[in-house]
């Protein structure tokens, strides 16, 4: 038990935008790849459409606008993202200290595929903090904003949804956590929120608390 987090038995962290400052980098890569495939897209629009969403959501969008992606799109994008991450990805400032202080079980639940989550955590020195406690959209039928992934993670960790706290940065992630019957804190400290009012976005979909710096993780408010 951690007295600073009463009524909580498990903390679930999203990965992109919460553990690693990756959202703007990955959406920039995505926008560039879509333009090469002949689909109009900007980094800002990609963030609006796909922040916190899985590859399935991207494929559904492109089919919906009548511009299905070529067969090599996803592997080529993954390679571009890996190269960009290798040179530019950083952990969210202060996250290592938060993890070191947690006195509760915790894990990752991410819309990214497992290989990318592992790669991101290894690059940023966070892999040892989580070990095998990594859950991704590949493991469930429906990704965020459906509750499936968070319910799967909580079940695997042996925690009840009502006693689970989720840390999320996206509308789809907050929506998924609330649908799962969990408490959710919205984190808006990633660089992708430099020009957007993340506070208003996440509050609107039900975040129980909003904070913009990991140094404020333990501050009630």
Summarize the structure.
The protein is an alpha/beta fold. The chain has helices at residues 23-36, 43-50, 55-64, 73-88, 95-101, 114-123, 127-130, 148-157, 171-179, 198-204, and strands at 10-13, 106-110, 134-136, 164-168, 183-187, 209-211.
Strand order of the largest sheet: 3-2-1-4-5-6
The major sheet is characterized as: 6 strands, parallel
Strand content range: 5-15%
* CATH T-level topology of the largest domain: Rossmann fold
The secondary-structure class comes to alpha/beta
Q: How many strand segments? A: 6
Give the class-level CATH name of the largest domain: Alpha Beta
Q: What helical percentage do the residues reach?
A: 40-55%
Question: What does this entry look like structurally?
Answer:
By secondary structure, the chain is α/β, with parallel strands linked by helices. The protein folds into two domains: 10-21 and 90-216, 3-Layer(aba) Sandwich (Rossmann fold), CATH 3.40.50.1000; 24-88, Putative phosphatase, domain 2 (DNA polymerase, domain 1, Orthogonal Bundle), CATH 1.10.150.240. It is built from ten helices and six strands, in the order E-H-H-H-H-H-E-H-H-E-H-E-H-E-H-E. It has a six-stranded parallel β-sheet with strand order 3-2-1-4-5-6, sandwiched between helices. Helix 10 links the parallel strand 5 and strand 6. The longest helix has 16 residues, at 73-88. The two termini are 21 Å apart.
């Amino acid at each position: 038990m951690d007295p600073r987090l009463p009524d909580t038995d498990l903390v679930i962290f999203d990965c992109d935008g919460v553990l690693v400052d990756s959202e703007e980098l990955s959406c920039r890569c995505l926008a560039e790849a879509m333009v090469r495939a002949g689909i109009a897209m900007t980094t800002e629009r990609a963030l609006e459409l796909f922040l916190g969403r899985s590859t399935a959501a991207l494929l559904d969008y492109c089919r919906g606008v009548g511009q299905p992606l070529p067969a090599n799109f996803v592997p080529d994008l993954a390679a571009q993202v890996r190269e960009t991450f290798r040179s530019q990805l950083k952990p969210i400032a202060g996250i290592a200290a938060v993890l070191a202080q947690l006195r509760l079980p915790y894990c990752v639940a991410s819309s990214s595929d497992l290989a990318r989550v592992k790669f991101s955590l290894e690059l940023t020195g966070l892999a040892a903090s989580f070990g095998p406690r990594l859950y991704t959209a590949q493991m469930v039928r429906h990704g965020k904003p459906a509750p499936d992934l968070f319910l799967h993670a909580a079940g695997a960790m042996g925690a009840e949804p009502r006693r689970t706290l989720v840390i999320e940065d996206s509308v789809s992630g907050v929506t998924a956590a609330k649908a799962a019957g969990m408490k959710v804190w919205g984190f808006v400290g990633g660089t992708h929120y430099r020009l957007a009012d993340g506070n208003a976005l996440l509050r609107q979909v039900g975040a129980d608390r909003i904070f913009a710096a990991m140094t404020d993780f333990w501050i009630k408010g």
